[in-house]
Design a protein that fits this description.
single chain; alpha/beta; DNA polymerase, domain 1; Rossmann fold; 2 domains; two-stranded antiparallel sheet; 14 helices; 15 strands; globular; binds guanosine-5'-triphosphate; binds magnesium ion
Length: 345
């Protein structure tokens, strides 16, 4: 008698468990809602494989849905057939993701624009550096990429007294002294300003990728109101670690994953992501500007706004907007000064 009762209870528990794992269909659109599903719900993924996947940066179904077969085979140690099943299942579970143009317009109303301190530069950017987007500045050494990163930190913190910013520093060029100067220039309390900047030094590309992934938990677990994430520089570790043509594909694949993380941070949390990038000489260019940004199409396409910085005459700097979804291309000239940027007509 007791056994039969237990059996019923166990069966109910199993049913509940199954129900919680079964995709729920939205009656009107038949769009599958599976937000609750995790890596372990994918076919062929047990606890050990899930752990390996997580260690390699695959945290959710979306990351598996957009992964390549090779990546999964390598990181999770599964066969190609299983990897294919995992990807297909993850893709099937994704929400359709369509929204109306009005929804997008409403979302755009929530976009904030952060000042560079230069009126002309802000105007070039349609008001400033946008949240919900990745803005990339590329240019030669000393062109002002890091200075702009520091200035953005101060201006974001000035804009909102509760805001925090994250600075991922790969070249050891974050300078609190410089923040102090800019904060004083903006009439801000220096200590409070520095306290709201969370700096992390990235020692290699994997570390850099991990730090970027941690931003989401900083927001979720510590409840920090992060408004800006700076990655300075985006490409230096990748460039140093992957040398030679043979490693190019792997480098681009990793960079792609990193850009994907940054883009997700920007979009899902309405954060402004600012990345700096170096340039290299184009060996086959004889006319015009012989420099090009590192990272190729992967970085170019993932960045929403791209700015080319170069040194102008008499110590000035020139910023040229070369790619933006809704702004005209243009150029502005400014000078980096102790307290911030100064427009040059
Ligand atoms: P790399 O990281 O080497 O590729 O260069 P970058 O583009 O990040 O250059 P960065 O932003 O570090 O710019 C350095 C330049 O900013 C210097 O050459 C100076 O012209 C200027 N600068 C930096 N600090 C000060 C300062 O305290 N006062 C003034 N007037 N200019 C400064
Ligand atoms: Mg720099």
């Amino acid at each position: 008698m007791a056994d039969a009762k237990n059996k019923v209870i166990v069966e109910e528990l199993i049913q509940d468990e199954l129900k919680s794992k079964t995709p729920k269909y939205n009656e009107s659109s038949k769009v599958v809602k599976m937000e609750k599903l995790g890596l372990q719900d994918l076919p062929g993924v047990g606890a050990a494989t899930a752990e390996k996947l997580e260690a390699a940066g695959f945290r959710d179904l979306l990351s598996v849905a957009v992964a390549t077969l090779g990546e999964l085979v390598e990181t999770a140690g599964v066969t190609e057939a299983v990897a294919r099943k995992m990807i297909n299942a993850a893709r099937d579970s994704m929400k359709m993701g369509f929204e109306t143009g009005m929804d997008v317009l409403r979302k755009r109303e929530g976009v904030s624009k952060f000042s560079t301190g230069s009126e002309a530069f802000n105007a070039l950017m349609g008001g400033g550096f946008e949240t919900g987007a990745i803005t990339e500045c590329f240019g030669e050494f000393g062109s002002g990429k890091t200075q702009i990163g520091h200035l953005l930190c101060v201006n974001v913190l000035k804009d909102d007294p509760e805001a925090h910013v994250v600075y991922i520093d790969t070249e050891n060029t974050f300078r609190p002294e410089r923040i102090k100067q800019f904060a004083e220039g903006a009439d801000l309390d220096v200590e409070d300003t520095l306290n709201r900047i969370m700096v992390a030094r990235a020692f290699n590309s994997d570390h850099q990728m991990l730090l970027a992934e941690k931003v989401e938990s900083l927001i979720a677990e510590q409840g920090k109101k992060v408004r800006l994430v700076v990655v300075d520089s985006l490409t230096s570790h990748f460039r140093a670690e992957f040398i030679g043509r043979g490693t190019l594909a792997e480098r681009q694949q990793k960079l792609n994953r990193h850009m994907h993380t940054l883009s997700k941070i920007a979009n899902t949390n309405n954060i402004c992501v600012y990345v700096t990038n170096q340039v290299m000489a184009k060996p086959d260019q004889f006319f015009g500007d012989p420099t090009q940004a590192i990272g190729g199409h992967v970085v170019a396409h993932a960045s929403t706004f791209r700015i080319y910085l170069r040194k102008g005459k008499k110590g000035t700097r020139v910023a040229k907007l070369i790619d933006a979804p809704n702004l005209a291309d243009g150029e502005v000239c400014f000078e980096v000064q102790e307290g911030g940027l100064k427009d040059i007509n």
